[in-house]
Design brief:
The protein has about 350 residues and is an alpha/beta fold. The protein contains 14 helices and nine strands. It has a five-stranded parallel β-sheet with strand order 2-3-6-1-7. It has a two-stranded antiparallel sheet with strand order 4-5. It has a two-stranded parallel ribbon with strand order 8-9.
Length: about 350
């Protein structure tokens, strides 16, 4: 899977930005130092986390990934540290947590910025003392695992906003590795395209197609807000829909070609809420100064209905729903909790 002069198998890109990532990854891998991966969504943070594990003395041990943004606070605590039977209503039997499961290996905490302020205290203890208790238990468990964390937001901003502990940040940020967005390493686009073409052809047992020079130039010039993941999707789409062995400019999406796309405006919960607040405000203003509860309830109801409709349109896929609503996935998750839309999001 490696390409050309890549320093790490399985990772694509030979430009200066990625070469620096490879250099730090190789130097950090043999140690037990905690690593903090930063970068936009879709830049390959999990691939670097796996490389750090596979190049380390812990490679024969487990690699355990936890998406901290996908679980509520109570579920995440149980997921990380485990629980004993009877610890809470649905705890019908004891369960081992992810830290125990990662003993002798590596635990990868993705979207670490989503962890609640209270739960961050327990994470800090694991990092410093290598010990914790299962939920509902008093027995202390010792664990030997390396921690790699990742975030797609600036944790300093989270600290300033009072949502992230500065002591946990400094404990995580022993070795920082920043993954550059694809728009800052356009020289790697051809290698990535070739890789995805070959992989898709192998998976579907179809003949590999070639991208024309014009199509490749457009891909290199595009800004890629979704980074490598977005590029992968467009390569697969072109492979499926192209009418000839050569994928040309016309086979690419219109916005990649620079053609303005007329479409229904993306639903933005904050904008909708502001608009509805104005409309609802006019409606309830006649109720007098005690209308605050009615006002808030009406706005909340409208917001819930919009999120519900978009969740159904996206078949409960939170990533697609958040993109269509114009909010990040963490905000969507909190709103699903707030409006009790768990069944619709499954």
């Amino acid at each position: 899977m490696a390409s050309g002069n890549n320093l790490i198998d399985g990772l694509i890109g030979n430009g200066p930005a990625m070469q620096e990532v490879y250099r730090i990854t190789r130097k950090a891998a043999p140690s037990n130092a905690t690593v903090l991966l930063t970068g936009e969504t879709g830049t390959g943070k999990e691939l670097i986390a796996r490389a750090l594990h596979e190049l380390s003395p812990r490679a024969s041990g487990p690699f355990v990934r936890v998406n901290c943004g996908a679980l509520s606070e109570s579920l995440l605590e149980s997921e990380l540290f485990g629980h004993i039977k009877g610890a809470f209503t649905s705890a019908h039997e004891s369960r081992t947590g992810r830290f125990e499961a990662a003993h002798g290996g590596t635990v990868f905490l993705d979207e670490i910025n989503s962890v609640s302020y209270q739960l961050q205290v327990k994470l800090l203890r694991v990092l410093q003392e290598h010990e914790f208790e299962r939920v509902g238990d008093t027995k202390t468990i010792q664990v030997d695992c390396r921690v790699i964390a990742a975030t797609n937001v600036d944790l300093i901003d989270e600290i300033d906003a009072g949502r992230f502990r500065d002591d946990l940040y400094y404990r995580l940020n022993v070795i920082p590795i920043d993954l550059p967005p694809l728009r800052e390493r356009s020289e790697d686009v051809p290698s990535l395209v070739d890789f995805f073409v070959e992989r898709y052809s192998t998976e579907t047992q179809t003949e590999a197609r070639q991208f024309s020079p014009g199509a490749m130039q457009l891909l290199a010039q595009y800004r890629w807000p979704g980074n490598v993941r977005e590029l992968q999707n467009y390569v697969e789409r072109a492979m499926v829909l192209a009418n000839s062995a050569t994928i040309d400019v016309d086979d690419l999406p219109e916005h990649v070609r620079g053609i303005p796309v007329v479409r229904t405006a993306r639903v933005n919960v904050d904008s909708i809420e502001t608009l509805c607040a104005d409309l609802v405000g006019r409606t309830v203003s006649e109720a007098g100064p005690d209308s605050n509860e009615l006002y808030s309830a009406a706005v909340s109801r409208v917001e819930r209905e919009i999120i519900l409709q978009v969740l159904r349109q996206c078949q409960g896929v939170q990533t697609r729903t958040a993109a269509r609503l114009g909010i990040n996935r963490n905000t969507l998750h909190k709103k699903i909790e707030e409006h009790n839309l768990h069944d619709e999001s499954r």
